[in-house]
Amino acid sequence: MELDNITYQINGCAMKVHRTLGNGFQELIYQRCLAIELEKAGLGFEREKDQEIYYNGEVVGTRRTDFVVEGEIIVELKACINLENVHLAQAKNYVVVYNFPIGLLINFGAGSLQFKKIYNRKYQKK
What we know:
25% of the residues are buried. The two termini are 17 Å apart. The protein has a five-stranded mixed beta sheet with strand order 1-2-3-4-5, sandwiched between helices. It has helices at 3-21, 27-40, 85-97, and strands at residues 45-55, 58-69, 73-78, 102-107, 114-119. Strand 4 and strand 5 form a beta hairpin. Helix content is 37%, strand content 33%. The chain contains three helices and five strands, in the order H-H-E-E-E-H-E-E.
């Protein structure tokens, strides 16, 4: 499936969750609801997947991503009043360090759903 089509479907699922719940819940609640919607949409995903972080070719730790969808797109969720530059920087770093072509940063905490699409310019096909 084309990456733009997958991101479009993910955003649609996130919109359904936000339209139903609104803002004000913890991130974990949105994560569980988004998993339900992704499954309904027929998208393959892994939730809270451990990813290794490398420094100069050595593993220096791990970090869990909220979602990896169709093995190609990393999805990072937030539930804050407004996305800030630090959230975007974090998501950009994850996309690069985990070597995914695209990432989505989705914030359920604002009055309107916020999302940013992040491209990895350093992506190396696996």
